[in-house]
Predict the structure.
Amino acid sequence: MHEKVLNLLETGKVDIFLGYKMMAGHPLPHAFGRHNPVEVQEMILGPARYPLEKLAVEILAARPDLKIGILARDCNRRALNVLTVHQQVAPGQVQVLEVSCCPSPLQRHADCSSLEAKEFGAGKKEIGIDNNLTPDRLEAMEPTERFSRWMYEFQKCLKCYGCRDICPVCFCRECSLEHEDLIGTGDLPPEVPIFHLVRAVHMAGRCIDCGLCEDACPVDIPLRLLYRKVNELVADLFDYKTGLSLEQPPFSLLFDKTAQPAAAPHGA
């Protein structure tokens, strides 16, 4: 991995490479450059995950002339496809160095935090929603019970915006979750369940099921399960699988009018 990154930098294929480095005892995102090639040896792999592709898009918004490489798991690749489809980055503007994130016979646990099953207490399982459930298992419950469990989860929300801020495919310049005509401000918990339902609608056909929102949630709301359901609806209605290709989504005409690129692609 180190040799590949060095080659990308030294041959000028990328100007900076986004990966992970231990800093103050924590694996954090770091931009490696050709000005300090020795530092590349400090790049690490591990279960820590950040939306490196989102950081790349933000850097390109300020410096569209740069060529950026990123360390990419499957979810990073899917997110990059979505960002390209929605014109937030030009095709080929970000190069990826793919790394395996799935378990193998030689590795007991996956090299990715989202693939590890989470443990929850009896109280959450009794009156809330076990985050490890699948949409079909949840839908097997009676509607009144399902509604009660979702309301219990939504009422725990601290309105910290962690789910939005960590999301690799949230790129709107004006966020509807901060629009006073849609979401009331100043109250905790936020108006239930409008806050999360508005975001769920925006995730339809966009969520790449990375689970970062759920990892960031301080109160363990099963957000990944909620967005999996809205993506299932998109798949059933339009036969569209989010992030698997650079094919435009079925409602691309709407996005063409509303989503403007953060930076003009090269050659535009």
About this structure: The radius of gyration is 20 Å. Residues 154 and 193 are 6 Å apart (CA to CA). The chain has a mean pLDDT of 84.
